Amino acid sequence: PYTALFRSAGRDAALGATLAVVYKHSSRCSVSFGAHAQVARFARDTTVPVYMLDVVDDRAISDYIAERMAVPHQSPQVILVCRGVAAWHASHHRVTAASLHREMELAIAP
C-alpha cells in the first residue's frame, strides 16, 4: 500500500500532490513499528497515496522533506500533504490511523 520514496522524482511528486501522506519510518526505532502498523491500516482504508521513507537509509531525502514542508524532522512521523503544503503532521504515538483519517477529512472539507 506504500510507494517508497528514494528518488528525487518520487519525492517531488509526493510533496507536490493534491493530497498524499508521507510517512517517515526508522528501522532502528521500536515506536516506528507501531506507527507503521497504524499507517498500514490507514493505507488499506483509503485511496490517498501513502509514501514511505526509511530515514536511516535516506536521511538526505528526509532532511529535504523537512525543509520543503517546513516541518521539523522526527521519526516516526506522518505529514499530510494537501495542495503541495503540509496541512498537518504528527509523530511518535500520535501517528494513528484514526488521526490520519480525521485530519484528511478536515483537509478536504470545503
Write up this protein.
The protein has 110 residues and is of the alpha/beta class. 42% of the residues lie in helices and 25% in strands. It is built from 4 helices and 5 strands. Strands 1-3-2-4-5 form a 5-stranded mixed sheet, with helices on both faces.
Biggest beta sheet summary: 5 strands, mixed
Given the C-alpha coordinates, what overall shape results? globular
The total strand number stands at 5
Arithmetic mean of pLDDT: 91
Topology as H/E string?
A: EHEHEHEEH
Helix count equals 4
Instruction: Determine the structural class based on helices, strands and strand pairing.
Output: alpha/beta
Return residue spans where pLDDT drops below 50 for at least 5 consecutive residues: none
Distance between the termini: 27 Å
For the structure shown, list the relevant keywords.
110 residues; alpha/beta; five-stranded mixed sheet; 42% helix; 25% strand
Please describe the topology of this protein.
Elements: E1 2-4, H1 8-15, E2 19-25, H2 30-44, E3 50-54, H3 59-69, E4 77-82, E5 85-91, H4 97-108
Parallel strand pairs: 1-3, 2-3
Antiparallel strand pairs: 2-4, 4-5
Helix pairs in contact: 2-4
Concise overview:
By secondary structure, the protein is an alpha/beta fold.
